[in-house]
Amino acid sequence: MTKKSIRSTAYILLFSFLISFDVQAQNQALSVDEVLALFYQRNLDLIAAQYNIDQSVADAIIASAIPNPTIGFQLLELSRNLNNNSSATGCPANTSCGPAQYYSFSQLIEVAGKRGLRIQSSGFATQAAESDFRDAIRIFSNMVRDAYYQLLQTQKNLWLAQEIVDHYQTVTKANNLRMKSGDISESDFLRVKMEALRAESDLDNAQTAVTMAQADLAVILRWPEKSLQFEAKEEWPLVKDIGQQLSQDDLINKALQQRPDLQADKLRAEQADKQLELAKRLKYPDVTVSAGYARDPSNNALNSGFVGFSIPLPLFYQYQGEADKANVNLSQSRLAAQQTELGIRNDVVSALATWKSADKIVSRFKEGLLDDALAVRNSSELAYNKGATSVLDLIEAERSYKNVMHDYYAAEINRANAYYDLEKSLGIESNSDKTLSKRTSQTR
Questions:
Q1: Fewer CB atoms inside 10 A, N or C side of the chain?
Q2: How many domains are there within the chain?
Q3: What distance in Å separates the CA atoms of residue 360 and residue 244, rounded to the nearest whole number?
Q4: Which CATH number fits the domain that encloses residue 268?
Protein backbone atom coordinates (compact mmCIF):
# COMPACT_ATOMS: atom_id res chain seq x y z
CA MET A 1 0.00 0.00 0.00
CA THR A 2 1.46 3.41 -0.98
CA LYS A 3 1.99 6.26 1.48
CA LYS A 4 -0.73 8.25 -0.27
CA SER A 5 -3.21 5.39 0.17
CA ILE A 6 -2.25 5.00 3.84
CA ARG A 7 -2.71 8.73 4.42
CA SER A 8 -6.09 8.73 2.67
CA THR A 9 -7.25 5.74 4.69
CA ALA A 10 -6.12 7.40 7.92
CA TYR A 11 -8.02 10.57 7.06
CA ILE A 12 -11.15 8.56 6.31
CA LEU A 13 -10.90 6.64 9.58
CA LEU A 14 -10.24 9.81 11.57
CA PHE A 15 -13.15 11.61 9.95
CA SER A 16 -15.42 8.63 10.55
CA PHE A 17 -14.34 8.59 14.20
CA LEU A 18 -15.11 12.30 14.57
CA ILE A 19 -18.53 11.79 13.04
CA SER A 20 -19.37 8.81 15.21
CA PHE A 21 -18.03 10.57 18.31
CA ASP A 22 -20.07 13.65 17.54
CA VAL A 23 -23.24 11.62 17.06
CA GLN A 24 -22.76 9.74 20.31
CA ALA A 25 -21.57 12.73 22.34
CA GLN A 26 -23.93 14.74 24.44
CA ASN A 27 -24.37 17.92 22.43
CA GLN A 28 -24.73 21.22 24.25
CA ALA A 29 -27.61 23.26 22.87
CA LEU A 30 -26.83 26.99 22.63
CA SER A 31 -29.04 29.89 21.68
CA VAL A 32 -27.85 32.57 19.28
CA ASP A 33 -27.44 35.03 22.18
CA GLU A 34 -25.29 32.52 24.07
CA VAL A 35 -23.10 32.01 21.01
CA LEU A 36 -22.74 35.79 20.61
CA ALA A 37 -21.78 36.14 24.28
CA LEU A 38 -19.16 33.40 23.87
CA PHE A 39 -17.76 35.06 20.76
CA TYR A 40 -17.34 38.47 22.40
CA GLN A 41 -16.04 36.94 25.60
CA ARG A 42 -13.14 35.55 23.60
CA ASN A 43 -12.71 38.36 21.05
CA LEU A 44 -13.88 41.66 22.57
CA ASP A 45 -10.45 42.87 23.69
CA LEU A 46 -8.92 42.01 20.31
CA ILE A 47 -11.62 43.90 18.45
CA ALA A 48 -11.28 46.92 20.72
CA ALA A 49 -7.50 46.90 20.27
CA GLN A 50 -7.92 46.69 16.52
CA TYR A 51 -9.95 49.89 16.49
CA ASN A 52 -7.42 51.76 18.67
CA ILE A 53 -9.83 52.95 21.33
CA ASP A 54 -7.06 53.05 23.94
CA GLN A 55 -4.81 54.96 21.59
CA SER A 56 -7.54 57.52 20.90
CA VAL A 57 -7.97 58.13 24.62
CA ALA A 58 -4.19 58.53 25.02
CA ASP A 59 -4.08 60.96 22.08
CA ALA A 60 -6.80 63.04 23.75
CA ILE A 61 -4.70 63.26 26.91
CA ILE A 62 -1.66 64.34 24.90
CA ALA A 63 -3.66 66.95 23.00
CA SER A 64 -4.97 68.57 26.19
CA ALA A 65 -1.55 68.73 27.88
CA ILE A 66 -0.14 72.16 28.77
CA PRO A 67 3.53 72.67 27.78
CA ASN A 68 5.89 72.12 30.69
CA PRO A 69 7.94 75.07 31.97
CA THR A 70 11.72 75.19 31.66
CA ILE A 71 14.07 75.95 34.54
CA GLY A 72 17.67 77.00 33.85
CA PHE A 73 20.86 77.63 35.81
CA GLN A 74 24.10 79.19 34.54
CA LEU A 75 27.55 79.97 35.91
CA LEU A 76 29.39 82.81 34.12
CA GLU A 77 32.80 84.41 34.27
CA LEU A 78 34.71 81.23 35.10
CA SER A 79 38.49 81.68 35.57
CA ARG A 80 41.29 81.03 38.12
CA ASN A 81 40.99 84.38 39.91
CA LEU A 82 37.38 85.25 39.53
CA ASN A 83 36.72 88.98 39.73
CA ASN A 84 39.97 89.56 41.69
CA ASN A 85 40.47 93.27 42.61
CA SER A 86 37.07 94.05 41.11
CA SER A 87 35.83 97.50 41.84
CA ALA A 88 32.25 96.28 42.08
CA THR A 89 30.40 96.91 45.27
CA GLY A 90 29.57 93.24 45.57
CA CYS A 91 33.22 92.25 45.56
CA PRO A 92 35.68 93.76 48.10
CA ALA A 93 39.23 94.61 46.97
CA ASN A 94 41.91 91.95 46.89
CA THR A 95 39.23 89.23 47.02
CA SER A 96 38.18 86.50 44.59
CA CYS A 97 34.38 86.74 44.65
CA GLY A 98 33.39 83.73 42.50
CA PRO A 99 31.38 83.39 39.28
CA ALA A 100 28.11 85.03 38.37
CA GLN A 101 24.99 82.90 38.93
CA TYR A 102 21.88 83.11 36.80
CA TYR A 103 18.58 81.30 37.59
CA SER A 104 15.89 81.37 34.89
CA PHE A 105 12.32 80.18 34.36
CA SER A 106 10.51 80.10 30.98
CA GLN A 107 7.03 79.08 29.91
CA LEU A 108 5.61 78.59 26.41
CA ILE A 109 2.20 80.22 26.00
CA GLU A 110 0.15 79.02 23.05
CA VAL A 111 -1.96 81.69 21.39
CA ALA A 112 -4.85 81.76 18.92
CA GLY A 113 -6.66 78.89 20.66
CA LYS A 114 -4.40 76.14 19.31
CA ARG A 115 -4.68 73.94 22.40
CA GLY A 116 -8.47 74.18 22.38
CA LEU A 117 -8.57 73.14 18.72
CA ARG A 118 -6.32 70.16 19.46
CA ILE A 119 -8.63 69.12 22.30
CA GLN A 120 -11.69 69.36 20.06
CA SER A 121 -9.96 67.47 17.26
CA SER A 122 -8.86 64.63 19.54
CA GLY A 123 -12.36 64.50 21.02
CA PHE A 124 -13.82 63.88 17.57
CA ALA A 125 -11.16 61.22 16.94
CA THR A 126 -12.09 59.40 20.17
CA GLN A 127 -15.79 59.48 19.30
CA ALA A 128 -15.00 58.21 15.79
CA ALA A 129 -13.02 55.28 17.24
CA GLU A 130 -15.93 54.41 19.52
CA SER A 131 -18.31 54.55 16.53
CA ASP A 132 -15.94 52.28 14.61
CA PHE A 133 -16.05 49.84 17.49
CA ARG A 134 -19.87 49.86 17.58
CA ASP A 135 -19.87 49.31 13.82
CA ALA A 136 -17.50 46.36 14.28
CA ILE A 137 -19.87 44.85 16.83
CA ARG A 138 -22.74 45.33 14.35
CA ILE A 139 -20.82 43.52 11.58
CA PHE A 140 -19.29 40.77 13.71
CA SER A 141 -22.64 40.01 15.37
CA ASN A 142 -24.20 39.23 12.00
CA MET A 143 -21.17 37.19 11.00
CA VAL A 144 -21.66 35.01 14.08
CA ARG A 145 -25.41 34.79 13.45
CA ASP A 146 -24.82 33.67 9.86
CA ALA A 147 -22.58 30.84 11.06
CA TYR A 148 -25.07 29.94 13.79
CA TYR A 149 -28.02 29.70 11.42
CA GLN A 150 -25.92 27.80 8.91
CA LEU A 151 -25.38 25.22 11.63
CA LEU A 152 -29.09 25.23 12.42
CA GLN A 153 -29.94 24.65 8.75
CA THR A 154 -27.59 21.68 8.50
CA GLN A 155 -29.10 20.29 11.70
CA LYS A 156 -32.60 20.62 10.26
CA ASN A 157 -31.48 18.86 7.10
CA LEU A 158 -29.94 16.12 9.25
CA TRP A 159 -33.18 15.66 11.18
CA LEU A 160 -35.10 15.50 7.91
CA ALA A 161 -32.66 12.95 6.47
CA GLN A 162 -33.04 10.82 9.61
CA GLU A 163 -36.83 11.05 9.35
CA ILE A 164 -36.76 9.88 5.74
CA VAL A 165 -34.40 7.01 6.58
CA ASP A 166 -36.71 5.90 9.39
CA HIS A 167 -39.69 6.22 7.07
CA TYR A 168 -38.09 4.09 4.38
CA GLN A 169 -37.13 1.49 6.96
CA THR A 170 -40.79 1.20 7.92
CA VAL A 171 -41.84 0.94 4.28
CA THR A 172 -39.11 -1.65 3.58
CA LYS A 173 -40.24 -3.83 6.47
CA ALA A 174 -43.79 -3.72 5.19
CA ASN A 175 -42.60 -4.50 1.66
CA ASN A 176 -40.78 -7.59 2.91
CA LEU A 177 -44.06 -9.04 4.10
CA ARG A 178 -45.92 -7.93 0.97
CA MET A 179 -43.32 -9.48 -1.35
CA LYS A 180 -43.44 -12.77 0.53
CA SER A 181 -47.20 -12.79 0.12
CA GLY A 182 -46.89 -11.88 -3.55
CA ASP A 183 -48.58 -8.52 -3.11
CA ILE A 184 -45.74 -6.59 -4.81
CA SER A 185 -43.14 -7.51 -7.38
CA GLU A 186 -39.47 -7.91 -6.65
CA SER A 187 -38.65 -4.93 -8.89
CA ASP A 188 -40.89 -2.66 -6.79
CA PHE A 189 -39.26 -4.00 -3.64
CA LEU A 190 -35.78 -3.29 -5.04
CA ARG A 191 -36.73 0.21 -6.12
CA VAL A 192 -37.85 1.08 -2.61
CA LYS A 193 -34.72 -0.54 -1.21
CA MET A 194 -32.57 1.56 -3.54
CA GLU A 195 -34.33 4.72 -2.37
CA ALA A 196 -33.73 3.65 1.22
CA LEU A 197 -30.01 3.29 0.50
CA ARG A 198 -30.00 6.69 -1.17
CA ALA A 199 -31.68 8.14 1.91
CA GLU A 200 -28.94 6.66 4.09
CA SER A 201 -26.32 8.29 1.85
CA ASP A 202 -28.17 11.60 2.24
CA LEU A 203 -28.05 11.06 6.00
CA ASP A 204 -24.28 10.56 5.88
CA ASN A 205 -23.86 13.73 3.79
CA ALA A 206 -26.11 15.66 6.17
CA GLN A 207 -24.01 14.53 9.14
CA THR A 208 -20.86 15.65 7.33
CA ALA A 209 -22.45 19.05 6.66
CA VAL A 210 -23.29 19.41 10.37
CA THR A 211 -19.71 18.59 11.36
CA MET A 212 -18.35 21.13 8.88
CA ALA A 213 -20.79 23.80 10.07
CA GLN A 214 -19.76 23.12 13.67
CA ALA A 215 -16.13 23.51 12.66
CA ASP A 216 -16.85 26.79 10.87
CA LEU A 217 -18.59 28.14 13.96
CA ALA A 218 -15.74 26.88 16.14
CA VAL A 219 -13.22 28.82 14.04
CA ILE A 220 -15.23 32.02 14.49
CA LEU A 221 -15.42 31.36 18.24
CA ARG A 222 -11.64 30.71 18.32
CA TRP A 223 -12.23 27.01 18.90
CA PRO A 224 -13.47 26.83 22.51
CA GLU A 225 -13.51 23.57 24.44
CA LYS A 226 -16.04 21.02 23.14
CA SER A 227 -16.89 23.30 20.24
CA LEU A 228 -17.71 20.32 18.00
CA GLN A 229 -20.44 19.34 20.45
CA PHE A 230 -22.31 22.63 20.13
CA GLU A 231 -25.85 22.35 18.86
CA ALA A 232 -27.92 25.30 17.68
CA LYS A 233 -31.28 25.66 19.34
CA GLU A 234 -34.24 25.98 17.03
CA GLU A 235 -34.93 29.59 17.97
CA TRP A 236 -35.96 32.14 15.41
CA PRO A 237 -35.57 35.90 15.82
CA LEU A 238 -38.41 37.67 17.55
CA VAL A 239 -39.53 39.95 14.76
CA LYS A 240 -40.06 43.44 16.15
CA ASP A 241 -41.27 46.60 14.50
CA ILE A 242 -38.03 48.12 13.29
CA GLY A 243 -39.68 50.12 10.55
CA GLN A 244 -40.56 47.40 8.06
CA GLN A 245 -43.84 49.15 7.32
CA LEU A 246 -42.25 52.55 6.73
CA SER A 247 -41.62 53.88 3.28
CA GLN A 248 -38.27 53.29 1.68
CA ASP A 249 -37.25 56.94 2.06
CA ASP A 250 -38.20 56.97 5.75
CA LEU A 251 -36.13 53.85 6.35
CA ILE A 252 -33.15 55.38 4.58
CA ASN A 253 -33.41 58.52 6.70
CA LYS A 254 -33.62 56.35 9.82
CA ALA A 255 -30.48 54.49 8.80
CA LEU A 256 -28.62 57.71 8.02
CA GLN A 257 -29.30 58.88 11.57
CA GLN A 258 -28.31 55.62 13.29
CA ARG A 259 -25.54 53.93 11.32
CA PRO A 260 -22.30 54.05 13.34
CA ASP A 261 -20.07 53.86 10.26
CA LEU A 262 -21.61 57.07 8.88
CA GLN A 263 -21.35 58.70 12.29
CA ALA A 264 -17.65 57.77 12.40
CA ASP A 265 -17.03 59.29 8.96
CA LYS A 266 -18.86 62.49 9.90
CA LEU A 267 -16.85 62.73 13.13
CA ARG A 268 -13.63 62.35 11.15
CA ALA A 269 -14.79 65.12 8.85
CA GLU A 270 -15.37 67.31 11.93
CA GLN A 271 -11.91 66.37 13.17
CA ALA A 272 -10.39 67.26 9.80
CA ASP A 273 -12.18 70.61 9.89
CA LYS A 274 -10.65 71.39 13.29
CA GLN A 275 -7.23 70.28 12.05
CA LEU A 276 -7.56 72.65 9.09
CA GLU A 277 -8.42 75.52 11.39
CA LEU A 278 -5.49 74.59 13.61
CA ALA A 279 -3.14 74.50 10.61
CA LYS A 280 -4.28 77.99 9.60
CA ARG A 281 -3.53 79.30 13.09
CA LEU A 282 0.02 77.96 13.12
CA LYS A 283 1.12 81.21 11.47
CA TYR A 284 0.33 82.99 14.71
CA PRO A 285 3.54 82.48 16.71
CA ASP A 286 3.47 81.27 20.28
CA VAL A 287 5.10 83.37 22.97
CA THR A 288 7.77 82.16 25.38
CA VAL A 289 7.83 84.24 28.61
CA SER A 290 11.02 84.21 30.66
CA ALA A 291 11.96 85.45 34.13
CA GLY A 292 14.91 84.96 36.39
CA TYR A 293 17.27 86.00 39.14
CA ALA A 294 20.97 86.91 38.78
CA ARG A 295 23.75 87.18 41.39
CA ASP A 296 26.81 88.78 39.83
CA PRO A 297 29.62 89.82 42.19
CA SER A 298 31.38 91.70 39.40
CA ASN A 299 28.36 93.91 38.88
CA ASN A 300 27.57 97.01 40.84
CA ALA A 301 24.14 95.45 41.43
CA LEU A 302 25.01 92.25 43.24
CA ASN A 303 21.45 90.80 43.08
CA SER A 304 19.11 91.53 40.22
CA GLY A 305 16.16 90.04 38.34
CA PHE A 306 15.08 90.00 34.74
CA VAL A 307 11.95 89.32 32.60
CA GLY A 308 11.49 88.93 28.89
CA PHE A 309 9.78 87.11 26.06
CA SER A 310 10.62 85.59 22.69
CA ILE A 311 8.53 85.13 19.58
CA PRO A 312 9.50 83.19 16.40
CA LEU A 313 8.86 85.38 13.37
CA PRO A 314 7.10 83.58 10.47
CA LEU A 315 8.87 85.62 7.82
CA PHE A 316 10.01 82.92 5.41
CA TYR A 317 7.54 80.10 6.07
CA GLN A 318 3.95 80.57 7.17
CA TYR A 319 2.86 76.90 7.42
CA GLN A 320 1.04 76.93 4.10
CA GLY A 321 2.00 73.28 3.51
CA GLU A 322 0.29 72.17 6.73
CA ALA A 323 -2.82 74.12 5.76
CA ASP A 324 -2.93 72.61 2.26
CA LYS A 325 -2.45 69.10 3.64
CA ALA A 326 -5.23 69.61 6.19
CA ASN A 327 -7.51 70.93 3.45
CA VAL A 328 -6.93 67.79 1.35
CA ASN A 329 -7.64 65.62 4.40
CA LEU A 330 -10.91 67.47 4.98
CA SER A 331 -11.99 66.91 1.36
CA GLN A 332 -11.15 63.20 1.57
CA SER A 333 -13.06 62.83 4.85
CA ARG A 334 -16.15 64.48 3.41
CA LEU A 335 -15.92 62.31 0.30
CA ALA A 336 -15.67 59.17 2.48
CA ALA A 337 -18.81 60.24 4.35
CA GLN A 338 -20.66 60.75 1.06
CA GLN A 339 -19.59 57.33 -0.20
CA THR A 340 -20.69 55.71 3.06
CA GLU A 341 -24.05 57.41 2.76
CA LEU A 342 -24.52 56.04 -0.76
CA GLY A 343 -23.61 52.58 0.51
CA ILE A 344 -26.15 52.88 3.31
CA ARG A 345 -28.91 53.77 0.87
CA ASN A 346 -28.08 50.71 -1.20
CA ASP A 347 -27.89 48.50 1.94
CA VAL A 348 -31.33 49.59 3.12
CA VAL A 349 -33.00 49.11 -0.28
CA SER A 350 -31.45 45.64 -0.74
CA ALA A 351 -32.10 44.50 2.84
CA LEU A 352 -35.72 45.67 2.77
CA ALA A 353 -36.42 43.93 -0.53
CA THR A 354 -34.76 40.72 0.70
CA TRP A 355 -36.72 40.80 3.97
CA LYS A 356 -40.09 41.28 2.24
CA SER A 357 -39.36 38.46 -0.20
CA ALA A 358 -38.11 36.05 2.50
CA ASP A 359 -41.06 36.82 4.78
CA LYS A 360 -43.57 36.16 1.98
CA ILE A 361 -41.90 32.87 1.04
CA VAL A 362 -42.05 31.55 4.61
CA SER A 363 -45.69 32.66 4.87
CA ARG A 364 -46.57 30.65 1.76
CA PHE A 365 -44.99 27.55 3.25
CA LYS A 366 -46.86 27.96 6.52
CA GLU A 367 -50.16 28.78 4.85
CA GLY A 368 -50.53 25.31 3.37
CA LEU A 369 -47.58 24.15 1.31
CA LEU A 370 -46.05 22.17 4.19
CA ASP A 371 -49.34 20.49 5.03
CA ASP A 372 -49.95 19.74 1.37
CA ALA A 373 -46.56 18.06 0.93
CA LEU A 374 -47.08 15.90 4.03
CA ALA A 375 -50.65 15.03 2.97
CA VAL A 376 -49.47 14.00 -0.51
CA ARG A 377 -46.79 11.75 0.96
CA ASN A 378 -49.14 10.10 3.44
CA SER A 379 -51.92 9.59 0.90
CA SER A 380 -49.45 8.20 -1.63
CA GLU A 381 -48.09 5.74 0.93
CA LEU A 382 -51.58 4.70 1.95
CA ALA A 383 -52.58 4.16 -1.68
CA TYR A 384 -49.38 2.21 -2.33
CA ASN A 385 -49.99 -0.06 0.63
CA LYS A 386 -53.46 -0.78 -0.72
CA GLY A 387 -52.10 -1.42 -4.21
CA ALA A 388 -53.92 1.59 -5.66
CA THR A 389 -50.78 3.35 -6.93
CA SER A 390 -47.38 2.42 -8.25
CA VAL A 391 -44.07 2.47 -6.44
CA LEU A 392 -42.95 5.32 -8.67
CA ASP A 393 -45.75 7.51 -7.31
CA LEU A 394 -44.63 6.63 -3.77
CA ILE A 395 -41.02 7.52 -4.50
CA GLU A 396 -42.01 10.74 -6.26
CA ALA A 397 -44.18 11.80 -3.33
CA GLU A 398 -41.34 11.09 -0.90
CA ARG A 399 -38.90 13.11 -3.00
CA SER A 400 -41.36 15.98 -3.30
CA TYR A 401 -41.82 16.01 0.47
CA LYS A 402 -38.03 16.06 1.00
CA ASN A 403 -37.56 18.91 -1.49
CA VAL A 404 -40.34 20.97 0.04
CA MET A 405 -38.93 20.55 3.52
CA HIS A 406 -35.42 21.42 2.33
CA ASP A 407 -36.78 24.56 0.67
CA TYR A 408 -38.74 25.44 3.80
CA TYR A 409 -35.72 25.13 6.07
CA ALA A 410 -33.69 27.27 3.67
CA ALA A 411 -36.51 29.84 3.59
CA GLU A 412 -36.64 30.00 7.39
CA ILE A 413 -32.88 30.52 7.57
CA ASN A 414 -33.01 33.16 4.82
CA ARG A 415 -35.80 34.95 6.67
CA ALA A 416 -33.82 35.01 9.92
CA ASN A 417 -30.71 36.30 8.17
CA ALA A 418 -32.77 38.83 6.21
CA TYR A 419 -34.25 40.21 9.43
CA TYR A 420 -30.83 40.63 11.03
CA ASP A 421 -29.45 42.11 7.81
CA LEU A 422 -32.27 44.65 7.83
CA GLU A 423 -31.43 45.49 11.44
CA LYS A 424 -27.77 45.85 10.49
CA SER A 425 -28.54 48.08 7.50
CA LEU A 426 -30.60 50.38 9.74
CA GLY A 427 -27.89 50.52 12.40
CA ILE A 428 -30.19 49.14 15.09
CA GLU A 429 -28.26 47.74 18.04
CA SER A 430 -29.61 44.70 19.84
CA ASN A 431 -29.62 44.64 23.63
CA SER A 432 -26.52 42.40 23.66
CA ASP A 433 -24.69 44.75 21.29
CA LYS A 434 -25.51 47.76 23.49
CA THR A 435 -24.27 45.88 26.54
CA LEU A 436 -20.97 45.09 24.82
CA SER A 437 -20.44 48.71 23.74
CA LYS A 438 -21.23 49.99 27.23
CA ARG A 439 -18.94 47.43 28.87
CA THR A 440 -16.03 48.44 26.66
CA SER A 441 -16.53 52.18 27.24
CA GLN A 442 -16.57 51.60 31.01
CA THR A 443 -13.40 49.52 31.08
CA ARG A 444 -11.28 51.87 28.96
A1: N
A2: 1
A3: 13
A4: 1.20.1600.10
